[in-house]
Amino acid sequence: MPLPATIDDRLLGRLTDRVRSSGGATYKLLEVYTGEVITALPQSTAADVEAAYADAREAQQGWASQPLEQRLAVMKRFHKLLLKNHATVVDLMQAETGKARRMSFEEVCDVAMTTSHYLRTASRVLTDTKRGGVVPFVSTATEVRAPKGVVGLISPWNFPFATSLSDAMPALIAGNGVVLKPDNRSTLNVAFGVSLLEEAGLPAGLVQIVCGEGPDVGPAIVDGADYVMFTGSTATGRVIGERAGANLIGCTLELGGKNPLVVMPDADLDETVPGALFGSFLNAGQACMHIERIYVHALVAEEFTRRFVIAAERIALGASYDWEPEMGALISAEHLERVSDHVEDARSQGAEVLTGGRARPDLGPTFYEPTVLRGVTPAMRLAREETFGPVTAIFTYETEDEVVALANDTDYGLNASIWSRDLEAAERLGRRIRAGNIGVNDSLACAYASKSTPSGGIKNSGVGSRHGDSGLLKYTDPINVAVLKKQVLTPPADVDYAKYVKQTVLSLKAMRRLNLR
Question: Is 254 a catalytic residue?
Answer without folding.
Answer: yes
